[in-house]
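Human
Can I borrow your eye for a moment on a structure tokenisation matter? Give me a protein, with the fold worked out from its sequence. Write it directly below this note and I will take it from there.

Assistant
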Amino acid sequence: MLYLLYLPGLFLLLHVYFWLADRFNIIDEPNHRSSHKHVTIRGAGIIFPIAVITHALLTGFDYPLFVSGLLLISFVSFYDDLRPLSNKIRVLAHLIAVFLLFKEADLISYPFWIIILSFILVIGAINAYNFMDGINGITGSYSLVTLLALCFINQWELTFVLNEWLIVSILALMVFNFFNFRKKARCFAGDVGSVSIAFVIIFFLLLLILSAGDLKYIGLLLVYGLDSVITIIFRLIRGENIFKAHRSHFYQYLANVKKWPQLSVSVLYALVQLLISAIIIYIDLSLIQLFLFFIICGSVFVCIRFLVEGRGYLLSKKVIDTNSA
């Protein structure tokens, strides 16, 4: 019965947010780096932390440190959607939120080098998730595939989290997708949406990895990981500042240069991740086999980028700058 109330409740909350966004001009205006052409409401991804935090309030705070970290990182990200925020404040908030997440998952009890490496990987993954949110439907569809995979594992393979937390997150994504997975989206997730859903997924993923004692589940985010890491490598080869805003990701090339429909690109990323997730779930891989699998996937992805984008586009700074202007 609680789930039946969540859907209309989340729809109502999002409509209230639309009214507030219109009133206070919380919008995304197209610029030379944008993949959209129309003024669109920004920050609608606030529905993700609201759904999770509301569920925590209704059910007794099963994961209080995680919820506190989510509240902090969502608040800072939403503020950043409204007006520019100091990088120092943003980084500090991310560090504190991730520390709370690690504390909740009991990762703090592990050796120091594992904690430091995990900090780097998790904060990098959160920011990569944010950078990948650039076209209609990609964050919603990709996150939905990942959460459904986690829900399947939790239900049929290994219980690592209370199942209703996964379901609530899935319901929030479904409501958001209703307004975002469109040729002309009514709203965008904003930093608050991409960062918060990344934080939520990483928490569930971390619980799974620690419960199973198996790193293979990192592969549930492999497509985003490959696009982010390989794009950074190409930008370094071109001598670009990797901290500067850009649209050099493969999905951006397909949508902006090749003019593929944005929803087709989003579905492609989600389906490829679905295939990889199925392999990860059903095939037992040793650490060496997992490493080789990731290397093969990465090599295939690089080859595809060279075939589709061309050597000149990938390696020439002048060509990239021309197409990004």
